Amino acid sequence: xxxxxxxxxxxxxxxxxxxxxxxxxxxxxxxxxxxxxxxxxxxxxxxxxxxxxxxxxxxxxxxxxxxxxxxxxxxxxxxxxxxxxxxxxxxxxxxxxxxxxxxxxxxxxxxxxxxxxxxxxxxxxxxxxxxxxxxxxxxxxxxxxxxxxxxxxxxxxxxxxxxxxxxxxxxxxxxxxxxxxxxxxxxxxxxxxxxxxxxxxxxxxxxxxxx
Length: 211
Ligand code: C5P
Fold this sequence. Notes:
3-stranded antiparallel beta sheet; 5-stranded parallel beta sheet; 9 helices; 8 strands; binds cytidine-5'-monophosphate
């Protein structure tokens, strides 16, 4: 397709969501939050009473799900079986189980397909863990966002998310399918060295060099 994808990857609490959102606004692009898609499937798994650590059961439950992605006001939306999801994706329960569910290959296959589908109709910024490595490996625009451990720890506490995030990063980085890592061709941006504004400027500079 002739559309442009900017891939923003990094661990939790790295500042990638804020950066991706501000970049998408600065450039007038659609913002797609791929983490929400994994959270949505996790929410539905839990709601259906399926054990999130039972990969086979998760894959089976996935087959029954009608997942609908969309764009509204330049932001991605997600609905499962007709239920539009939002704040319920950010609960402790979902935080605790999302790494388990997102490690299931069938889940990744399905969601990567849907993620690629966005590019058929819009230019976008997509944030996640495997956007530069798996979803859009051919895009020249890739940023890996990171931050010092203590800065990330502070942000976690501020977000009320202390224990789960650490485990989540470890699980996301060590899983077999699509682990979190710096993609080939990605520039690493350390947000602990930046204010929000200077981080956006640095990202814009990186993108102009990558293009
Ligand atoms: O970005 P966020 O922290 O909301 O993502 C929640 C979880 O979804 C991650 O911890 C990870 O397990 C999973 N995820 C993923 N691949 C992505 C985006 C998110 O596995 N591209």
